[in-house]
Design brief:
Blueprint lengths: L1 H7 L3 H17 L4 H4 L2 H21 L5 H24 L5 H25 L1
Helix pairs in contact: 2-4, 2-6, 4-5, 5-6
């Protein structure tokens, strides 16, 4: 794992997403039992899909990255909808949601910048 982390540590979007996944795990750990293994697990799965897609996209030639970056954007939107839903049904505090929203905004800007670059 250390080698993989070192391989991508120069990518700000990878580092930010990886750190955000750790934060998500801490939040979901505190979900009520009936949501932890359903909605919580789905949120975690989508977050990992985003990170996996970042890794895949980075390994592609520049001319082939646009579609993969679009997939990252789609997954990120999917993540945000489920995460907001979890907040709206009371599964996390306002403070935790606020901290997460700041990170979501930063990652979203990175994805948007990557999309502009790819075009």
């Amino acid at each position: 794992m250390a080698k993989l982390m070192a391989q991508y540590s120069h990518l700000p979007i990878y580092v930010k997403t990886y750190e955000f996944i750790k934060y998500i795990y801490r939040i979901i750990q505190q979900f009520r039992k009936e949501y932890k293994h359903t909605l919580g697990a789905e949120i975690q799965q989508i977050a990992w899909q985003i990170l996996d897609e970042v890794i895949k996209t980075n390994s592609l030639p520049d001319s082939q990255k646009e579609d993969s970056i679009q997939e990252i954007s789609y997954l990120f939107d999917k993540f945000k909808i489920r995460f907001r839903f979890a907040y709206e049904i009371g599964l996390m505090t306002n403070r935790k949601f606020g901290v997460a929203q700041q990170q979501i905004e930063e990652i979203g800007k990175m994805i948007g910048g990557w999309q502009k670059w790819a075009r």
